[in-house]
Design goal:
This protein is α/β, with parallel strands linked by helices. The protein contains 14 helices and 14 strands. The strands form three sheets. The chain has a seven-stranded mixed sheet, with helices on both faces. It has a five-stranded mixed sheet with strand order 1-13-14-12-11. It has a two-stranded antiparallel sheet with strand order 5-6.
């Protein structure tokens, strides 16, 4: 597809390097290019690695130490204030193993027993199965296209909330569609939710990954009502590539939730790892320059994918994400059925997340991970194009 004008260190990472590292994208399907797990192929910031080595040298191997929890919470609070002007006390930032653990707690301890869970779709697929494992019904509310931009269907959302639901899952920035919502959009959602007395679980794990022209706004900050009905979860795991270290943050923003969380005891937090706490404190405090470089590279990749799709994949619709490093490819015009990912896995040896696994609204689509070296991104699209040409 032609040479890029500037070679970045990330361009030099090879598939062999990634297979040796052993991440899921590169080990679960030998011989295929993996683009289904939302983690980056770019390694980790040196500041985080240094902090982890120091933690190991200091034998930080015991049960969850309050000092590490405090250091993580202070670092996160400072980062939230600097990045978004969100003034949160460190005591209101609680550790959990991951965002899904936070979701399970929100469903089981912060929503009405037995109430349904409202999920805008297409959605991160575990937003659809975690409620089921908790014995809850899931109500899917498809997003709608308005002037080529995905938006909430407020009327459908209102109907879903009115039918007795207890909690809405809000992903912001939005996985898998890549939207970064405006204050007005989030306020409109908060008004619907508040009118029907729901809670909101705000998954803001992708909030550091936002591109020029978009600004992440923490949902709990858009109104006093939103602050009162929201449980926020975030983590450095996506932006700084730390998913395996098992650490995320729940941000409490009202007195009732503080009291409920205190009543949960250590059970809510015990799955958090000491290395995760150490890595998150270092990420929030010291690894901003590394992330800045990564965002520039991701920005280049999301634009590169536009060029590749236009040249090699006629019929595929791709809208560059405003945030996240996930690309949503609408393949419905290719006549590959509800699960086009199966075709590409079989004939192109490329593995995506099937859109239909993200809800009924995802039929005929796939989710691609942009956080890979650009030469590998080129090869992914080239393989797709060749498979389609040989049908």
């Amino acid at each position: 597809m032609g040479a890029v004008s500037t070679v970045h260190d990330f361009d030099l990472i090879t598939v062999a390097d990634l297979r040796k590292r052993g991440g899921l994208n590169w080990s679960l399907y030998p011989g295929a290019l993996g683009s289904f797990v939302a983690e980056m192929d770019y390694g980790c910031a040196s500041e985080i690695i240094e902090a982890l080595h120091a933690g190991m040298d200091d034998l930080r191997f015991g049960y969850l130490p309050p000092v590490l929890v405090g250091e993580m919470a202070q670092a996160c609070a400072g980062w939230l204030a600097e990045s978004y002007g969100w003034q949160v006390t460190a005591a209101d930032i609680r550790p959990v193993a991951d965002v899904i653990a936070g979701l399970q707690i929100a469903i089981e301890s912060f929503s009405r027993p037995g109430s349904a869970i409202v999920v805008p779709t297409p959605a991160y697929k575990h937003f659809l199965d975690v409620p089921l494992r908790s014995g809850r019904k899931v109500v899917e509310v498809p997003m709608v296209l308005v002037e080529d931009r995905w938006e909430f269907d407020l009327d459908a959302l209102d109907q879903a909330c009115a039918a007795g639901a207890g909690l809405m899952i809000l992903c912001s920035p939005y996985n898998p569609l890549g939207r970064v919502f405006s204050n007005a959009e989030l306020r409109a959602v908060s008004e619907v939710v508040e009118r029907h007395g729901l809670r909101v679980f705000a998954d803001e794990i992708h909030c550091p990954v936002v591109f020029n022209g978009a600004t992440h706004i923490p949902y709990a900050t858009v109104s006093p009502a939103a602050s009162a009905h929201t449980i926020t979860a975030l983590s450095a795991s996506k932006a700084w590539n730390l998913a395996g270290l098992k650490c995320a943050q729940v941000v409490l923003s009202n007195d009732a939730d503080r009291e409920t969380w205190t009543g949960l005891g250590m059970a809510a937090e015990i799955g958090t790892s000491n290395p995760g706490l150490i890595a998150h404190a270092a990420a929030y405090r010291r690894a901003g320059p590394w992330l800045h470089d990564v965002l520039g590279y991701l920005d280049r990749n999301r634009i590169r994918l536009s060029e590749l799709v236009a040249q090699l994949l006629p019929g595929v619709v791709y809208r560059p994400p405003e945030g996240t490093y996930l690309a949503w490819l609408d393949c419905t015009a290719l006549d590959l059925g509800d699960r086009p990912g199966s075709f590409f896995a079989d004939h192109a040896r490329v593995v995506f997340t099937e859109g239909v696994d993200c809800g009924d609204a995802g039929r005929g689509c796939v989710r691609l991970n942009l956080a890979t070296p650009q030469p590998i991104l080129d090869e992914i699209v080239d393989r797709m194009a060749k498979a389609l040409a040989q049908r």
